[in-house]
Amino acid sequence: MRITDLRSIIIILFYATANVAIITFSFTTDAPEIISPQSTSAVVPEYTVIENLDYFHLKNGIPQLSLAAHRMSSVGEEMAEFENPKGVYNHSEKNKAIRYQAEHGVYRKENELLVLKGDVKISSLESQYFAQRLDYFFKRDLLHGVGGVKYMGEDPKTKDTFNIEAVSMRARPQKKLATFTGNVRGVMNRKKKYEGNMKFSSRELSLDSDKSLAHLEGSVVLTRPSYLITAGKADIFFENYNKSLKYFVLNDDVKVTETVNTAGKITQRKSYAERLEGFGREQKMILSGAPRVEQGADVIKGYRITIRENADLIEVDDAMSDVQVKRKKN
Predict the structure, then answer these.
(1) Does pLDDT of 113 surpass 90?
(2) Is 88 part of a structural domain of the chain?
(3) Which residues fall within 8 angstroms of residue 237, CB to CB, at 6 or more apart?
(4) Domain assignment present for 16
(5) Domain assignment of residue 298, yes or no
(6) Mean pLDDT on 257-276
């Protein structure tokens, strides 16, 4: 058939040209990337919520972390949040499990970090730690706690018990090491009740349970029923109380305030020195470093002075001493 209508010829040529352009463009342009459900999940991790959860993390086929919680929410597999978590972390060594509980928890799998908040409690066989927030780095055996920090522990050798409060703490439960800082205060109770207890306070306290040793630093105060001692720093050797060894050593501006019974009269005795060594079983304290003792109107000075708990007797080592007894001026 012959096409004689010019208008029809123009329309046919226009459509033919358009079709050729579309076909050419489709062959010369890369196809857009098709986003499948699988690629979407790789970019945006799946959000999961589970009620009344029992969670286990295995390492080498052995349950390393177990955790029960009222609710868990997670984004992917690397981080999970828990409500009222309560569980156990098993160290590689036998009988080295750590138990924990809190109001809220976050577990970061890659760092093996468990962050606990709200009435936190972590306990082992020998000790218990309390705080409002506590970060537990499992791999590093490191606890970092802040807010209302409390510690309750037992010395493995003497079986004496400790209660310590502080602003913050850092501890390594497996190595039985702990450092408490900020308004540290506490009490040590002897296993034998008749031996009494000792209260203490300082700016910082480091506790080494394996060595039965506590080191106190800054504004140190030790209190027994019959005396009060202040100093710049102190070491307490808990295992030495019933041995003929130093039970505690204090240094830097030592001051001892005692209540003594002198011939039926209760008086106060004050002693000053740069160093004090205390012996628990003998209940005596040796002062050195320009020591002096003031009792009533009398002042005693010497090279080394020994005073005894609940006793009026004062011993002065006069082999290398300059002893002076004089009345205090009014």
Answers:
(1) no
(2) no
(3) 212, 213, 245, 246, 247, 248, 249
(4) no
(5) yes
(6) 83
Farthest-apart Cα atoms in the chain, separation:
147
DSSP, collapsed to helix, strand or coil, labels residue 136 as strand
What pLDDT shows up at residue 40?
44
> Which residues is 177 bridged to in the sheet?
172, 208
Residue listed under structure tokens 């004050």? 270
* Span between the terminal Cα atoms of the chain, in Å: 142
Domain holding 263, by residue range, is 226-234+243-330
- pTM equals 0.75
* H helices present in the chain, as ranges: 6-28, 37-43
Cβ atoms of 197 and 215 within 8 Å: the answer is no
pLDDT for 260 equals 76
Residue 250 within any structural domain of the chain = yes
Supply φ then ψ for residue 240, to 5 degrees.
Answer: -90, 5
Query: CA-to-CA distance for 69 and 123, rounded, in angstroms?
Result: 18
Q: What are the E-state strand segments in 124-190?
A: 127-137, 142-154, 161-172, 177-189
pLDDT over threshold 80, residue 165: yes
Q: When comparing pLDDT for 259 and 305, which is higher? A: 305
Domains of the chain: total: 1
For residue 34, is pLDDT > 80?
no
What average pLDDT does the chain have?
78
d(CA 91, CA 220): 36
